[in-house]
Amino acid sequence: QVQVVESGGGLVQAGGSLRLSCAASGSIFSINPMGWYRQAPGKQRELVAHIGRGGSTNYIDSVKGRFTISIDNAKNTVYLQMSGLKPEDTAVYYCNILTWPQLDWGQGTQVTVSS
């Protein structure tokens, strides 16, 4: 089965930026819509942004204008560029396909935003 590995998280001050990467072990992005999810402590995992096969993107209201999702099919990698980070963005970020059955979840990458 295709596996994904997330990276790029870290500790950043409010207003800062990070770029997350999600590398897949196979060519799945060209045939599956992809999403970035996050899970904050004590909260359920939520879909933050997703990108369709045609490149259309969608974001939850709280990150619109601050986050950008993109794909490099040649590298089997999905990115999440995050700017204007806020403390409420603190969470573990994961990527996965949007179609069912989804892939096994990766380890995620921790993003911590200090105020």
Q: How would you characterize this protein structure?
A:
A hairpin with a 6-residue loop joins strand 4 and strand 5. This protein has strands spanning 4-7, 10-13, 18-24, 34-39, 46-51, 57-59, 67-72, 77-82, 91-97, 109-114. It has no helices and ten strands. The protein is mainly β and 115 residues long. Strands 2-10-9-4-5-6 form a six-stranded mixed β-sheet, with no helix packed on it. The N and C termini lie far apart (40 Å). The relative contact order is 0.32. The radius of gyration is 13 Å and the shape is globular.
In short:
By secondary structure, the protein is mainly beta. It has no helices and 10 strands.
In whole angstroms, the N-to-C terminal distance is: 40 Å
The major β-sheet equals: 6 strands, mixed
Order of strands in the sheet with most strands: 2-10-9-4-5-6
Structural class determined from secondary elements: mainly beta
Strand content: over 45%
Shape: globular
- Residue stretches low in confidence (pLDDT < 50, at least 5 long) are none
Total count of strands: 10
Number of helices: 0
Classify the helix fraction into a percent range. under 10%
Mean pLDDT: 94
- Compressed to H and E, one letter per element, the order equals EEEEEEEEEE
Radius of gyration from the CA trace? 13 Å
